Amino acid sequence: MAIGERIRFFRNLRGLTLKALGMEVGFSPRTADIRMSQYESGSRSPKQELVEHLAQTLHVSTDALNVPNLDTYYGFMHTLFAIEDLYGLQIGKLDGELCLRFDRQRAKMRLYDDFDAWYQVWERYQNGELTREDYDNWRYTLPEVKAQETRSRLDELRKKRT
């Protein structure tokens, strides 16, 4: 999914119009909707500074906006191949079904820890402990949400010490 499609996805998720989002990131009211439409359609590409401002305005991580091209079959496959090379993704079978997994020995520990955190949040969502909005907020603000969770845990530990 290209960055323009991600911008549109998050804009709609937040209930913003093209004009409202454009004005939030600093475009004039006269051109805000046109500029945002150009970014969403892919006829223009936002510079990194604008991507950062859009992410802040949409309350998501810049990484949630900058995803690889997954719109094509081969784009998706090559993304998986890159993950295999970089992080130890492995394809296999489990009970006769194809599955993807990470070899703990080859996966970078942080990636493994992030996947474990993702699983824990997903499980809480599946069990009804979190709303879909809470689950999506966790996914779309990563890594900021993990930093906030870490700060909260540290604050709790400090309180226990005193």
| Low-pLDDT residue intervals, each spanning 5 or more residues | none
The main sheet comes to: 2 strands, antiparallel
Mean of pLDDT:
88
Quickly name the level 1 CATH class of the largest domain.
Answer: Mainly Alpha
Helix content: 55-70%
> So how many helices?
9
Number of domains: 3
Order of helices and strands: HHHHHHEEHHH
Shape: globular
**Approximately how much beta-strand content do the residues carry?**
5-15%
How many angstroms does the end-to-end distance come to?
A: 49 Å
Number of strands: 2
The CATH superfamily of the largest domain is lambda repressor-like DNA-binding domains
Biggest sheet strand line-up: 1-2
CATH architecture of the largest domain, please? Answer: Orthogonal Bundle
| CATH fold call of the largest domain | 434 Repressor (Amino-terminal Domain)
Structural overview:
The protein is mainly alpha-helical and 162 residues long. The chain has 3 domains: 63 residues, lambda repressor-like DNA-binding domains (434 Repressor (Amino-terminal Domain), Orthogonal Bundle), CATH 1.10.260; 30 residues, no CATH class; 53 residues, no CATH class. The protein is built from 9 helices and 2 strands, in the order ααααααββααα. A two-stranded antiparallel ribbon has the order 1-2. The longest helix has 18 residues. The termini are far apart.
Attribute tags:
mainly alpha, globular, 7% strand, two-stranded antiparallel ribbon, 434 Repressor (Amino-terminal Domain), 162 residues, single chain
